[in-house]
Automatic annotation (TrEMBL):
<feature type="transmembrane region" description="Helical">
    <location>
        <begin position="203"/>
        <end position="220"/>
    </location>
</feature>
<feature type="transmembrane region" description="Helical">
    <location>
        <begin position="12"/>
        <end position="33"/>
    </location>
</feature>
<feature type="region of interest" description="Disordered">
    <location>
        <begin position="463"/>
        <end position="487"/>
    </location>
</feature>
<feature type="transmembrane region" description="Helical">
    <location>
        <begin position="135"/>
        <end position="157"/>
    </location>
</feature>
<feature type="transmembrane region" description="Helical">
    <location>
        <begin position="163"/>
        <end position="182"/>
    </location>
</feature>
<feature type="transmembrane region" description="Helical">
    <location>
        <begin position="76"/>
        <end position="94"/>
    </location>
</feature>
<keyword id="KW-0812">Transmembrane</keyword>
<feature type="transmembrane region" description="Helical">
    <location>
        <begin position="232"/>
        <end position="250"/>
    </location>
</feature>
<feature type="transmembrane region" description="Helical">
    <location>
        <begin position="335"/>
        <end position="355"/>
    </location>
</feature>
<keyword id="KW-1003">Cell membrane</keyword>
<feature type="transmembrane region" description="Helical">
    <location>
        <begin position="302"/>
        <end position="323"/>
    </location>
</feature>
<feature type="transmembrane region" description="Helical">
    <location>
        <begin position="45"/>
        <end position="64"/>
    </location>
</feature>
<keyword id="KW-0046">Antibiotic resistance</keyword>
<feature type="transmembrane region" description="Helical">
    <location>
        <begin position="407"/>
        <end position="426"/>
    </location>
</feature>
<dbReference type="InterPro" id="IPR020846">
    <property type="entry name" value="MFS_dom"/>
</dbReference>
<dbReference type="Pfam" id="PF07690">
    <property type="entry name" value="MFS_1"/>
</dbReference>
<keyword id="KW-0813">Transport</keyword>
Length: 487
């Protein structure tokens, strides 16, 4: 569909929907101490408030992307926004840990439908080349800013109105975007006469991959309270492997699998998703550990902790805006490597400052450096992951890159949380110096992860199966194999 069919309003509406979805990933983080007290959460339960959303969101994005391709992206987007709005209100009304975690899971299900459907519509409305590159730059900027702004908004709402309003605000935002979608985003085109009956979505595959991811995170998290050789750890890890094998079996037999055959061999999809998982691991961990460092170690209140995220938010948006321009000078893959190394340096710097004596202003430099790297990496990896993918598979390609990012984040948070708990002895009431040591260990692990991702960027230099090389020009950053997409 040409760009004129969408116009500017659909991009603004779709970007607003993505902002709300990503916002909900981090909006709870700065208010976790208040949520823990209000809903009666344990230390482990506090991390599940984050991971329940992230796991449902990440694992079901594949199903959401395939549903968008089969049933129509606008239909799936509106259904996802509706579920997200209702679940957000339910989370705000929750007074027990079980209800809150269930509502957060439902939020993730709604987001899993809305996010890939929105990205599929962005790709549909903007043809390959400069128009799509600019649209994806906006999309990437909104995605990165949503994560950072969530911490700011969470701090303001938690201190002024109370933690339930964190979720009510997300519900209101989703409802407003839903109304704008119905008014401003063109309806799905009618299927041609005589079109074949669409196959049913791969529900078994969706269940298997979701349960596999949840079992993996549960097993890693259980190390905090059990030894690594304990059945409570080995059992979930074994279940994760078996469920993943079930997922592979379901994919081979279903006529419309969640991941179409050959998708990972197209263009740069496979290496882009691998690096996206590593970026997700440091991204989610940052927005979990940084607010806790500020409140538990540095003595910030929720509002002060939220305000302290403004440089991070601004740097993330700036990094997204600069990504196409810096890619023109450096080439997209050198640009990505530089972005990942900036994150590694920022996390190492942040680890050095993780002491009770650190002043608030000292965090500005490392968080701004991390934000610049995150913003640029988001744009570069999203463009690589959907470039060269046929329009019929654009929804599932968008779902896949978000899946790897979210699942990487869930596993990364489980690992950093387990490491921090091992350093502190798992005592949330430990003194500021001990808690600082735990967060320092988490930031050092994030720095190592970002550096490892930078070392893997040469994977993006390889020739794809079609024999094309990625174009370093920013107009093609979002679509490295435009000719394949046109076919």
């Amino acid at each position: 569909m040409p760009h004129a069919a969408g116009g500017r309003y659909p991009l603004a509406v779709l970007s607003a929907g993505q902002f709300v979805v990503v916002l909900s990933t981090s909006v709870v983080n700065v208010a976790l101490p208040q949520i823990r007290d209000g809903a009666g959460l344990s230390d482990t339960g506090m991390s599940w408030v984050v991971n329940a959303y992230g796991l449902a969101f990440g694992a079901l994005l594949l199903l959401g992307g395939r549903a968008a391709d089969l049933a129509g992206a606008r239909r799936v987007l509106t259904a996802g926004l509706g579920l997200f709005a209702v679940a957000s209100v339910a989370a705000g009304l929750a007074d027990t840990a079980g209800v809150l975690i269930a509502a957060r899971t439902a939020q993730g299900v709604g987001a899993a439908a809305a996010a890939p459907a929105g990205l599929a519509l962005v790709v549909r409305f903007h043809p390959p080349g400069s128009a799509r590159a600019r649209a994806l730059a906006v999309w990437g900027a909104v995605s990165g800013a949503g994560g950072a702004a969530g911490v700011l908004l969470g701090g303001v709402l938690a201190e002024v109105l109370g933690w339930p309003w964190i979720f009510h605000a997300c519900g209101l935002g989703a409802a407003l975007v839903l109304g704008a979608t119905l008014r401003r985003v063109p309806a799905d085109p009618a299927p041609p006469l005589g079109a074949a009956v669409r196959p049913r979505p791969d529900l078994l595959g969706a269940f298997a991959v979701t349960a596999s991811a949840a079992s993996l995170v549960h097993g890693v998290t259980a190390v905090r309270t059990h030894g690594p050789a304990d059945p409570y750890v080995l059992g979930p890890l074994a279940a994760a492997v078996l469920l993943f094998l079930l997922f592979l079996y379901a994919e081979r037999r279903h006529p419309a699998p969640l991941v179409p055959p050959g998708l990972l061999r197209r263009g740069l999809v496979a290496p882009a998703n691998l690096l996206s998982a590593l970026v997700g691991a440091v991204w989610v961990g940052l927005f979990f550990h940084l607010p806790l460092l500020q409140q538990e170690v540095l003595g910030f209140g929720p509002l002060a902790a939220g305000l302290a995220q403004l440089p991070l938010a601004a740097a993330t948006m700036l990094g997204s805006w600069l990504a196409p321009r810096s890619a023109r000078r450096l080439g997209p893959h050198r640009n990505l490597a530089a972005a990942l190394l900036a994150q590694a340096a920022g996390f190492a710097w942040l680890a050095l400052l993780s002491t009770p004596a650190t002043g608030p202003a000292a965090l500005t430099g490392p968080t701004a450096l991390i934000g610049l790297g995150l913003g640029a990496a988001f744009v570069q990896l999203t463009g690589a992951a959907v470039g060269g993918v046929p329009p019929a598979d654009s929804g599932v390609a968008g779902g896949l890159v978000n899946t790897t990012r979210q699942l990487g984040g869930a596993v990364g948070l489980a690992l950093t949380g387990t490491l921090a708990a091992a350093v502190t002895g798992g005592d949330p009431a430990a003194g500021p110096a001990v808690l600082a040591d735990g967060h320092r260990a988490a930031f050092l692990l994030a720095a190592a992860t970002a550096a490892a991702a930078a070392a893997l960027t040469p994977l993006l230099f390889r020739r794809d199966p079609a024999g094309t090389r990625p174009d370093p020009a920013p107009d093609h950053t979002a679509d490295h194999t435009a000719e394949g997409a046109r076919r």
